[in-house]
Specification:
The chain is α+β, with helices and mostly antiparallel strands. It has 12 helices and 15 strands. Bound molecules: adenosine-5'-diphosphate (ADP).
Length: about 500
């Protein structure tokens, strides 16, 4: 005889732990547990209700039998005598059934007759029986449950019976064992079928959970496909308007934002390297020329001087980039304090007086008095220095620059207008001038890095304000900045107008 060995290795999925922790498994488990508890509770409830119904039914039967006994029984000289047609098999078997568990006692509690079935339960004392007789006299139906030596329960109807002028005590009982069989069988069958039912529920739950989680899995798979070079992944909406569609929509919107940010960053690093390369190439060129062709000290000095200028430009770019990155990553914390805008703009206008005179441009400031806003003095100073420096840079000789400071009638905002009669900005470029490194093409490349207005925009935003620009080529440009006063500026009453004029040299 040969033995066949089945050497089948139990192969567990490698990510069994992940599966157990997974949402699908947990959903199925909860589903399974809820069903198990629910079905068990239903089973127990029905068993109890079945028992109760059967007990009620049994009470009715015992009650009927108790009443029937009176039709067949006579007490004659303290002896119970049964009257029935012994030839009628139906009647005799009925009477025989009545006689199985029966006790008859007189009105003093003395036992007149007790069947063997009753004796097995134990006959009560005279006092007890008399007590029950008296209770029965008042018309009370009394049911008692007793157990025999084997533990079988018997339901007994007790009461008083009147026969002419004789009164006696009658107790008729029935075994409850037959009654218990039905709920027991129900319990056995139901709780045997329950695990099979639960198994099917579990399997169904497993598949239902999978179906419900498909969009979540799709989101996870889509997220896995995302990389820096693949930000176009989008999950198609199921158009059911449920929570999962909401999740998909949120995910897709997040991808849109990520893509925009990523594009900006990519653009930024391209622009930054481009900006850094220009002065580096210049330095390299100058040094190479000096190395191979310079002979005199003056020629070397000139090369070093030119290189130093480019190094200076490099440092400016690096400094500006660092500041911008600090600003955008929230590392620059605004030091807000009450800033008197009238004084601040006066100071800045004073500083730009000399460059304006050198460029042969008129610079005027018209400011309402005592206009105070909560702001970071350094940043606000930087904001207007940038705007004025641009105005001076891009306004040809003979032009003018005017700065206005006004509060709004409801006193909630300070409006600052910087307007010039310079070269203006073309319509196509206007929407981009606040972008990093954006320089209007053909503008003199020496004039700037294209970062100034990015700063301006950040500072305004950080102060909760707004900035607008209007411009016409060849006519000039106007920047309008609105900064909130946050209720600081209450000095409307004293507000007067102060005009300061800087004359051209
Ligand atoms: P830059 O430091 O190069 O001036 P900005 O970010 O400050 O960079 O400005 C971006 C572009 O906007 C500039 O290249 C310039 O062409 C244009 N610009 C800014 N201000 C003015 C102005 N007042 N008049 C004309 N053009 C301006």
């Amino acid at each position: 005889m040969s033995k066949v060995h089945y050497n089948r290795a139990v192969r567990l999925p490698p990510n069994l732990l992940g599966l157990v922790r997974g949402l699908r498994f947990r959903l199925t488990l909860s589903y399974f547990a809820i069903f198990a508890i629910l079905l068990a509770a239903i089973g127990l409830y029905f068993r109890a209700s079945l028992r109760e119904t059967l007990d009620d039914r049994m009470r009715e039967i015992v009650e009927q039998e108790w009443a029937a006994v009176r039709g067949y029984l006579r007490i004659e000289n303290e002896v119970p005598v049964w009257y029935f047609d012994a030839k009628d098999p139906e009647e005799s078997s009925f009477v025989e059934r009545l006689q199985r568990i029966i006790l008859i006692a007189d009105n003093k509690g003395k036992v007149l007759e007790a069947s063997n079935g009753y004796r097995a339960l134990g006959v009560e004392s005279t006092q007890v029986l008399q007590g029950r007789f008296i209770l029965g006299m008042s018309g009370n139906k009394d049911f008692i449950t007793r157990s025999d030596s084997k533990g079988d329960r018997v339901l007994i109807r007790t009461g008083a019976v009147r026969q002419g002028n004789i009164q006696y005590y009658l107790a008729v009982g029935r075994r409850l064992a037959d009654n218990a069989i039905i709920p027991e069988r129900f319990t056995r069958d139901y709780f045997t079928a329950l695990p099979i039912l639960l198994l099917f529920t579990g399997i169904a739950g497993w598949f239902i959970a999978a179906r419900a989680l498909t969009p979540v899995t799709d989101v996870a798979k889509a997220a896995q496909r995302i990389s820096g070079s693949n930000l176009d992944v989008r999950i198609p909406s199921r158009r059911s308007g449920d929570e999962l569609d909401n999740l998909i929509e949120t995910f897709n919107k997040m991808m849109d934002r990520l893509k925009t940010n990523f594009e900006q960053m990519r653009q930024f690093s391209t622009d930054a390297s481009h900006e850094l390369r220009t002065p580096l190439t210049a330095i390299r060129g100058q040094l190479e020329v000096a190395l191979f062709t310079a002979k005199t000290t003056d020629q070397y000095k000139e090369a070093i001087f030119n290189s130093l200028q480019d190094v200076e430009q490099l440092s400016n770019i690096v400094r500006a980039l660092l500041m911008l990155s600090h600003a955008e990553t929230g590392q620059i914390v605004l030091q807000r304090q009450p800033v008197d805008m009238t004084l601040l703009l006066n100071d800045i206008a004073d500083q730009f007086q000399i460059p304006a005179e050198e460029a042969q441009v008129t610079l005027t400031l018209e400011a309402e008095k005592d206009l105070v806003i909560p702001a970071d003095r350094v940043q606000i100073g930087r904001l207007f220095s940038n705007l004025l420096s641009n105005a001076v840079k891009y306004t040809p000789a003979g032009g003018s620059i005017n700065v206005f400071l006004k509060r709004t009638p409801d006193n909630t905002q300070a409006n600052i207008i910087v307007t010039d009669t310079g070269e203006g900005i073309g319509e196509v470029h206007l929407p981009h001038i606040f972008e990093r490194f954006y320089k209007v093409p053909n503008a003199n490349p020496e004039k700037g890095l294209g970062l100034g207005l990015s700063f301006v925009a950040w500072i305004v935003k950080a102060h909760g304000g707004t900035i607008q620009v209007t411009s016409k080529l060849g006519e000039g440009t106007t920047f309008e900045v609105a900064l909130p006063t946050n209720g600081l500026d209450r000095s409307l009453k004293d507000a007067g107008s102060k005009r300061k004029r800087f004359k051209k040299a």
